[in-house]
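> @MW can you paste both from yesterday?
MW: sure, first one:
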Amino acid sequence: MKKPVYKRIVLKLSGEALQGKKGYGIDHSVCKSFAVSIKEIWKLKVQVTVVIGGGNIFRGLAAEESGMDRTTADYMGMLATMINGLAVQDALEKIKVPTRVLTAIEMRQVAEPFIRRRAIRHLDKNRVVIFVAGTGNPYFTTDTTAALRANEINADVLLKATRVNGIYDADPEKNPKAVMYNELRYMDAIKKKLKIMDSTAFSLCMDNEIPIVVFNMFKKDNLKSVVLGKKIGTIVAN
């Protein structure tokens, strides 16, 4: 069997991905599907961490636009990621994958506090680590959290899971003529203002030379194929 090209990964899942076709909340069939995909690469002895957004439950930026204080709204969004993290943990443990949820905002009854060395220790014990509550600070997205955690744990790659096939020059769901990039340089992604991730996340990965792969998580076996080194989606690197 072909060996994985990445030994330690950060998988970034958006909250919207978890809602499936429901439009809001958590579609547990989607959770189960993602868990099965994660188990496939976990069985290959890949050390897996997951960063989850909270947009299916609460979006801080949208709340700010309606008049809510930005800091308060962002903290509410961070709490939403905890709900999603527990849902993914439950889905994984139901299929016998050991997990730990690590949170940037202390919630002792439901998760461990994020400590870098503890996270790495869990990975060394073959546990999937789920990072929730963002960075613990307002004004930072969960994309930036994923880039930050990737740097902190010395991940080989950041995998950005989406519902489209990669990074395009326009929104492919609105423009059928949008062209997908197979490869991009970090600076080009920043200059072109491609909104698949924010500039802070791109910059963090660029400074430490962590490649980003943007791919369609909803296509069967895509996650496993990416980890095995197949050219799927868009890779962003130097």
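MW: second:
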Amino acid sequence: MAGAEPKYHRILLKLSGEALAGKQGYGIDPEVIAGIAEEVREVVALGVQVALVIGGGNIFRGVAAASRGMDRASADYMGMLATVMNSLALQDALEKVDVDTRVQSAIEMQEIAEPYIRRRAVRHLEKGRVVIFGAGTGNPYFTTDTAASLRAMEINADVILKATKVDGVYSADPAKDKTAVKIPRLTYLDVLKDNLQVMDATATSLCMDNNLPIVVFNLTCCGNIKKVVLGEGIGTIVKGE
């Protein structure tokens, strides 16, 4: 793929918090985060504008805490703060490999992150900086998937790249069902109708209303972010009819 032209010129990469935890399952694994930073650096070197949204599940899951009796809004705010911690860790890893990075938080905390301002975010991207959107949408009851869809639309991204531990969407859980087959293409309605675990329904509906494609791919294979950006047929693409 030497000299290949990127298929997408402005992307929003959605990472789960669990992706940063690596094999330990919680917290932040320095080796994993350094690997992700290196892959993002390669994509930026292609001239692609990169924004990121990271979950907080490796530190705190609001939904899980709410199910055990905690007030849902309070639990969700704690989850949003966890995403800011992950954002700062990734910013540090990116800057160690000489990638200019800005963190914008939907909850104002001016000592450590810029407030989320759409026009400023777009300007950073145009200048070749990576922008990490922290604290979700700033509202409880919304997932980081929904935050990713919302921010992708606001910055006019070409695609959402949803990084997971499997290489696309399957007919069943491939870890439990040997007959599960990978589905290379889906429509938004397929995802909603069959309740496929691509993104939650709110996020999928937002993408459908604005015709924003979603590519689900395996983050654990080295080089996959670059392969998706170059248009290689890995993962599953979700788009309109």
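> thanks! The longest helix spans residues 72-96.
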